[in-house]
Design a protein that fits this description.
Elements (H helix, E strand, L loop, with lengths): L6 E12 L4 E3 L2 E3 L4 E2 L7 H14 L4 H4 L12 H14 L2 E11 L9 H12 L9 E3 L5 H4 L3 E12 L7
Parallel strand pairs: 5-6
Antiparallel strand pairs: 1-4, 1-7, 2-3, 5-7
Helix pairs in contact: 1-3, 3-4
The structure holds magnesium ion.
Length: 168
């Protein structure tokens, strides 16, 4: 595989806190008094990863493929979205090779949930959990995440071409 055939993509997402919803991050329901507002389950981490994969494949973003205007995306699990994104990049001739990500949140403490999030993401994108990075940081009280108004996430994904099967 030539180095030129490896592609990279980045993704960033932000969702505001709201009352009356579960907090879902990396496909895990995190015990916390507030959730995130959004059309789907508002899993900001999986949205950032989805955008990074789509970007690497040159396929636009999740707003293009899973628009808010489509009622079927209402409260949709973002694990389902990430699986669909994996299928889209496979149709384009790629598979994920590595994922790294970071959640920016003042609260709650997320490190106990990293392994489960890594497993969820790995399953959706077809990778070993050892090739999926999940981390979190606070913003030291600064900005909208520091004021606990919402959560942000960013991701970077490496994708590689899937060798074409030799047909007969
Ligand atoms: Mg989003």
């Amino acid at each position: 595989m030539s180095p030129e055939s490896v592609r990279i993509g980045t993704g960033i997402d932000v969702h505001p806190f709201c009352e009356g919803r579960d907090l879902v991050l990396g496909g895990e329901k995190i015990p916390y008094p507030r959730g995130l507002a959004g059309h789907s389950d508002a899993d900001v981490l999986l949205h950032a990863i989805s955008d990074a994969l789509l970007g690497a494949a040159g396929l636009g973003d999740i707003g293009l493929h899973f628009p808010d205007s489509d009622p079927s995306n209402k409260d949709r699990s973002s694990l389902d979205i990430l699986e669909s994104v994996t299928a889209l990049i496979a149709e384009a001739g790629f598979r994920a090779s590595h994922v790294d990500s970071c959640i920016i949140a003042e609260k709650p403490k997320l490190s106990p949930h990293y392994p489960a999030m890594q497993r969820n993401i790995a399953r959706c994108v077809g990778l070993d959990p050892g090739r999926v990075g999940v981390k979190a940081t606070t913003a030291e009280g600064l900005g909208f995440t520091g004021r606990e108004e919402g959560i942000a996430a960013q991701a970077v994904c490496l994708i590689v071409p899937v060798p074409a099967r030799s047909g007969t």
